[in-house]
Amino acid sequence: MMNILAMKRRRFLQGAALAAGGALLNTRLLFAGVGTGGDSRLIVVIMRGAVDGLAAVPPYGDPAYARLRGTLAIAAPGATDGALPLDTTFGLHPQFAFLHEAFGAGELAVFHAVATPYRDRSHFDGQDVLESGVPVPHASQTGWLNRALATQPRSGAGERGVALGSNVPLMMRGPAPVASWAPTKLAELDQDTLQRIADLYSHDPMLGQRLADAQSADAMAGGQAHDAMGGAGANRYAEVIRATAGFLANEAGPRVAVFDTTGWDTHANGGGARGQLGVRFGALDTALRTLKTQLGSTWRSTAVLAVTEFGRTAAVNGTGGSDHGTGTAALLLGGAVRGGRVICDWPGLSAANLYQQRDVAPTLDIRALLKGTLVEHMGVGPGALDAVFPDSGRVKPLRDLFRA
Amino acid sequence: MRDATAAAIATNRFGLGARPGEIAACAADPRGWLEAQLRGNPPVISDSGLQSSAAMIATIDKVRADNRQAKAGAAAANAVVKLGAIYRPAYIGEVTARLRQAAITERPFLERITQFWSNHFAVSVDKAVVLGVAGSYEREAIRPNVLGSFAQLLLAVERHPAMLMYLDNFRSVGPDSMLAGRTEERTGKTLGINENLAREIMELHTLGVNGGYTQADVTAFAKVITGWSIGAAGKGIVRGGEPGEFFFRANIHEPGPQTIMGKRYGQQGHAQGEAVLLDLARSPATAQHIATQLARHFVADDPPPQSVNRLARVFSNSGGDLASVYRALIAEDTVWSQPLSKFKTPNDYVISAWRALAMPIDAARNVPPLFANLGQRVWSPNSPAGWPDRSVDWDGASALMQRLRWADEIGQRFGSSIDGAQLAPQVLGATLSANTRQALSRAASAAQAVTLLMAAPEFMRR
Fold this sequence. Notes:
The complex is a heterodimer. Chain A starts with 11 loop residues before the first strand and ends in a 16-residue tail after the last helix. By secondary structure, chain A is an alpha/beta fold. Chain A contains 11 helices and 11 strands. Chain A is globular. In chain B, strand 3 (258-260) and strand 4 form a beta hairpin. Chain B has helices at 4-14, 22-26, 30-36, 53-72, 84-104, 108-120, 134-142, 150-159, 161-166, 178-187, 196-205, 215-224, 270-282, 284-298, 305-317, 322-331, 333-337, 346-357, 367-373, 397-414, 420-428, 434-441, 446-455, 457-460, and strands at residues 228-230, 246-248, 258-260, 263-265. Chain B starts with a helix and ends with a helix. At the A-B interface, helix 4, helix 6 and helix 7 of A face helix 11, helix 20, helix 22 and helix 23 of B.
């Protein structure tokens, strides 16, 4: 599988490393049904705010790493709060216990020095490019994942999909119908009132469609829209994970979910092993462990893709954090994944090798990973990729990312 | 101008949603009604118990110091005060005061403008320390300055401790500053800049992301505003100044001239940053960016370019006089030709329901969850860009269902004392459709009528 990357430069690592961690406030999830791709399930975790790839997947073996990172450096494996080893160069952040187990079990592939084609440093433009799949910010009102779904025939007469989360992020907007679903603490309306509201919306196609989508989502969720955990923060995240697993494990349910996390923009006091970023990595790790447990046998056919808009400066900044950068890590997890590998063409952190003398130089276009996942895992025809990722002809899909 | 549709637009799109009687009161001259709200000083929120940012930050500094002492003390029983126990009541008090003001104000256009700027210059309580000062930030930096010049508003915002904390500038250190040199000598530790605030000022607050600046400009600007910090009584590099107030720390300021977007700034100290901000405020890119944001908020998700250009011209020609820009907005014919062009945010929805139904403000602790349950916890956007301002960002199926559940709850609580069918024309005016009117008249109960009124398509939009 490793001929996928242009590997003549530096070296190609096989082993491990990990991708972007996740956080938990303001989570949103959304689903869409896919026609083909068999039983495959895909969950995309969007990590908004630019995850520090050098914290998530510390290249502890890079000779420049410890000095550049200062207080943010993660120690080598074996030291107190040291990295969880993947190979002789890379480790995982010490809060990623579950991910480390998954790596050992061959269910986690780690990508490093990854970037979208966007080369400036605005979160909002960067997220737009990550989600739209178009190289230019704000050039598309639809997202790559939705366009990919739209290339596939609908399966059966059921709802195309349902969104967990109040609103639909750009990645999932587009021609393929998707809905949204989120936990609530408010009581359900009675059928009579709902029917009258539906009548009120009979002259309003947009609201009529939204109401129908919400009702079908509630039906699919078995009327379990209630946030039993009753809290914000971690509890709410757990509830969304539980619901995600419920939807994806349902034979007649959706096949694709998008999951939003925030809190990654660590300009100050990011902390090394135990700082605020570590707490968020830990929460993501716990959530993913719960997801695996709750998916049960469906885990075998599941892939979780964790991606962020760009990385952060290689050096610690003046306030114990890092500023907006370029290359970062990405993560592909799940029972369907051929994992246990770090897939990257590591550019190195010496001053001459940094992008614009400050960031991890990107050596892997994230669209190669996304394309590879769509083609191999979701059964999207290679011919459809040009429409899903316009202007990306030279970016070839990564191969052999999944178990046969 | 007597125009029934214009009265509904004035109260619901420019205002915060009509209170009963408001549409009738402004129907004779809706534009005049809006312009009148721009005269006189902005109102002051003076609910009892609200604290200044400076007082809050000073309290927090003291509690932190006490906590350190308690932890260092021998007695294990020394009480450590949790900071959240100080932040949370302040936040609840501020959110309640803000809703009360929005619910009863007779200058709702001005209040919407205030909330617009508060969101344009967003801070977020996602950062814990902001929880204690988000409300006072709005009262201190935004509210008094919404009728002055853009430059005045910008300077107030970028000097405010809440912004300096939220975007990390308060302890960004010039690499060649006195303190950095001394620290390096003594401890070998390297101090440096944090470019977060400088970048977001350029990208979000003024020029816009395509405003013509480069990474080098961001870095130079970050150096310029090193030293823009907050006074503190404590120890360490942040000592000095009035606790909790803006404080320029000369010893962490990067000395020497900087070049930004081709212009050299040779001023000393704090004046250097002010000079850059004043130039940013005057930039044509800023005029275009602000005009676009305002037009998106008041005209339509994708406002006509001619409208944006006219607003930008007024912005530039008036030297950034905000009242002139608001008047130009009111003068745009296109805003009066398309009723209900904007989908309400959850914040809009809650406030407009409060005004329409004249509901009492609940016990303070109940207010913040109203907004959070509908997906827009007050002052908590995910990023410094603030909350998004397009329909597609708010009109998801689940979000709609949450509104309907809440509408049902409100109907059941207040329906018995309200006649929804009779209230509807008072709050929706000429936008009330025959379809909705009929549904209300046929409602199965008074409670259901109120729910249906709040569910109506014309109540979901503004």
